[in-house]
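Minutes, project huddle
Topic: does the predicted pose make sense with 2-amino-3-ketobutyric acid bound?
PN asked that the exact inputs be recorded in the minutes so nobody has to dig through chat later. Recorded below.
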Amino acid sequence: MSNYLIVGAAGQLGIELMLALQKKHGPERVVLGDIRPVDHPDAALSTFVQCDATDKKAMADLVDQVQPAEMYMLVAMLSAKGEASPLQAWGLNMDPLLHALELAKDGRVPKVFWPSSIAVFGPDAPKDATPQNNGLRPTTVYGVSKVSGELWCQYYHQKYGVDVRSLRYPGLIGFRSKPGGGTTDYAVEAFHSAVEGRPLHCYLESTETLPMMTMEDAVRATLELMAADGDALSVRTSYNLQGCSFSPAELVSELRAQGVSLDVMYAPDTRQDIAASWPNSLDDSAARSDWGWRSAHDTPGLVGAILAGLSQPAIG
Ligand code: AKB
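Predicted holo structure (tokens), as shared on screen:
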């Protein structure tokens, strides 16, 4: 029986992947690693191991104990927080990945997943349908670490045959937990503000369009990529992934169309500069042709899905 290890399980994506892997393989096959506890009732169904992913020996001990078939290395400091502590962001975004790649190189983990981001692109990239193989010249430390991480993934794959797979996530919007330290976080906050009847203080300009995706789609993409035939994967840096794209004003208008009003006070700050350096949308044709990726949610679908999730009686 195979085990599935999520490191960084307490984060926004970690909790969603935990639920999906528990459903797919059974909770007893899922092991959760993080420095802090996982704040979801279903976390108690799986084993939790407190660990520091920047500690090489702790990671090796964890992997030897769990012997995972797949390891999801999700530990990261997101874009806005990273700008406040660039060297800390570099360490947190690179060390855990390199530990995972080394363990995979030594044959202790057969398959690794590592998340990249739209943040790999810089202001000189085409804004619309940004190509997979465009030059990567990001202006944030988060983006620099994601570009470097992508190249490390490709290097370990080409040089040592490590099976590491990656996606360039857009802004991820879920209803179970809130993100922290990102530039796209305003959109998650917008939903919570709308259902709680409070105004949104938006740090982006009303017209700043960014690529976004439901957590449901992002998790499905992750599991589909991990299940794909490795020989079919032509991209061993990280795949562009497109869900839908909208600006704050378009989000407000779609919320209104679905019967939810939201007052917004715009006060753009440095996060607007970050957002302005990123694409509006991505060309994800490589993901489509290599492993059959299809997004399930356009903007109205995303808004409807998140509102429905937030109206559920018990939100974990
Ligand atoms: C962020 O805003 O930093 C992240 C991302 C796009 O990777 N959500």
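Observations noted during the meeting:
- The longest helix spans residues 86-105.
- The pocket of 2-amino-3-ketobutyric acid is lined by residues 78-79, 117-119, 142, 169, 171, 182-184 (CB under 6 Å).
No decisions taken; revisit at the next huddle.
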